[in-house]
Write a structure and sequence with these properties.
CATH superfamily of the largest domain: Bira Bifunctional Protein, Domain 2
Number of helices: 4
Number of domains: 2
Largest sheet: 5 strands, mixed
CATH class of the largest domain: Alpha Beta
Distance between the termini: 44 Å
Radius of gyration: 17 Å
Order of helices and strands: EHEEHEEEEEHHEEEEE
Oligomer: single chain
Shape: globular
CATH topology of the largest domain: BirA Bifunctional Protein, domain 2
Strand order of the largest sheet: 1-2-3-8-7
Length: 238
């Protein structure tokens, strides 16, 4: 992706995010991409292990963006839109990827990707895993792959489309702000009024989906009024 992203490829690596963070500390440029065929120590949100065998897409993008630190969380929504558009481009037209807060991409209610946003000094590290050929077995949620849903794509093709889409949504975010990203995200997410259950920190709560606030927090109408959720895992339905 000349002029925007510079890809560094590895056959195997511990964690693409760790390598991107190491390079960030050394002053690597905005747009540096670490791509690996497999990870031996991949991780997802909440320090969970990320299943990383050969056959899937694993990459981390180093971004140096001049926005306040409090806004960096918006990048998760930028990334989820880029992944959703990539998946849509590689699957039969009858299948429409959907988004689950905060940054899961689903196909027919099964998770097909993972996104991990980390900070290293003044750089944001955006880690993305996309199931192309392999999906984890025994997960606590349904999982799927591009191939299982009728998609035809090589890992490199998926990477190139993803970076193109990421560039497009980064431009939208920087040009029009989070409101444009939020609107695009909502078009692919829960219908208004859906019953959402949020779990985390040993507790759970349930409410009707209202939307996202201007920082990306989840808004639910609960028995206690309008509730703003900052973190947690979500599921639809009682």
């Amino acid at each position: 992706m000349a002029g925007r992203f510079t890809v560094h490829h590895f056959d195997s690596i511990g964690s693409t995010n760790d390598e991107a963070r190491r390079r960030a500390r050394q002053g690597a440029a905005h747009g540096t991409v670490i791509h690996a065929d497999e990870q031996t120590a991949g991780r997802g949100r909440l320090a969970r292990t990320w299943f990383s065998p050969p056959g899937n897409l694993y990459l981390s993008i180093l971004l140096r963006i001049d926005v306040p630190l409090r806004r960096m969380g918006e990048l998760s929504f930028v990334a989820s839109l880029a992944v959703a558009e990539t998946v849509a481009a590689l699957l039969p037209q009858r299948l429409r990827p959907t988004l689950k807060w905060p940054n899961d991409v689903l196909v027919e209610n099964a998770k097909i990707s993972g996104i991990l946003l980390e900070m290293e000094a003044d750089a944001a590290i955006l880690g993305i895993g996309l199931n192309v050929l392999e999906a984890p077995s025994g997960a606590r949620y349904a999982t799927t792959t591009l191939v299982a849903k009728g998609g035809i794509a090589s890992v490199d093709t998926a990477r190139d489309i993803l970076l193109e889409q990421l560039g497009r949504f980064l431009d939208l975010w920087q040009g029009e702000g989070f409101s444009a990203i939020r609107a695009a995200w909502l078009e692919r997410s829960y219908p208004s009024g859906s019953t959402i259950r949020v779990t985390g920190g040993g507790s759970s709560q349930e409410g009707l989906f209202v939307g996202l606030d201007d920082s990306g927090a989840l808004l639910l109408q609960t028995d206690h009024g309008l509730t703003r959720i900052l973190a947690g895992d979500t599921s639809v339905g009682p």
